[in-house]
Amino acid sequence: MKVTIKGIIKESKEDLLVDRVVESLLGDTTYGVYHRFMGEIISEVKCPWNDSHPIYYNEIESISHLNAFKNMTEWGYAYGTNITNYMDKNYGITDENILGKIYLKYYTVLFTNILNDFDNYERKPMNESVENKEDLLVDKISQFMLDDTEIIDEFIPTMERVIIFYPFYTIENFYSTDKVLPILLKRGYDLDFVNYVQNTYSIKDWNLITNISQRYYSLLYDKVKEMIGSSNNPMNESVKRKEDTLNKIVDFMVQDTTWLIFMDTYGDDGSEHVRVEITFPSGDLDEFPMDEMDVEWEQFFMNESDRDYLEEQFGITERWITQELYNRYIKKLRPIIYEEMVNYNR
Known about the structure:
The chain has 13 helices and 9 strands. The protein starts with a helix and ends with a helix. It has helices at residues 5-27, 59-70, 81-91, 96-121, 130-147, 156-159, 180-186, 191-201, 206-231, 236-255, 290-293, 304-314, 319-342, and strands at residues 30-35, 41-46, 55-57, 150-152, 161-165, 173-176, 258-265, 272-279, 285-289. The longest helix has 26 residues, at 96-121. Helix 2 (59-70) packs antiparallel against helix 4 (96-121).
């Protein structure tokens, strides 16, 4: 493209105008870093076009915004009437191209200054590069996400599985202990992960999202590996206590169960069959013929009243633990009742 002297002069005038307006805007902007509550450190910013309503940023948000503005080639956000009216009234600028350049430079310089204030406030090195700040952002967000990840390590040696509640999923994820580490090694971000990072931490940059994903799953891998290793070593006594606790709860459940065995006449031939009426610990009542009690029930699915019973009596709310307890409960109860039914006529 041919560049004329006239074009160079026009460009230099625009750059000079942008620099002077940004300098003036920054002079009319107030900001500072301080503790707000519960140890949280934030920066309060009052822009000249809306100085009666300050905006608050924490350090992660400030790093994220700086990264976004530094990688932006042109203004991509819609700006409100307060800003445009202020720029028209105070500087007589209405050209959107010039306004976009002003906004980009203003916010880039503003968040650079804010981060310097954070550095001073927290007594960090003053010469951190943008790359180091991005690394800091990745490390902090990854650690926050790990802190929001719940890993169920109870009964792992018994159940031989790990349950992970990720902050970006609404349901728990089950893994066998022999497969969880290889799976975590291969995991990357999906749509739920991306939406969570974007909505929670205002991160839009795909490189940052990729780095956060890699760092998060690396931290999660190390934590699960350490957890499994410690569970398989000198934890036998702890595992035995957990097993004893489960077995005692199952014993209580059996004690809280009542049943009545009786002969029932039904069918076209009027034949008699042994049946049982069971009142479960939750208060639910059901009947079963003897042939059903002869079947090995591998799993017994509960309803809400069963879960309420376990929560009220034992304070247990985790669904996988309640399901495991009921599996063991039925496994212990079924042969007891079946033996009584077999001997009912003898």
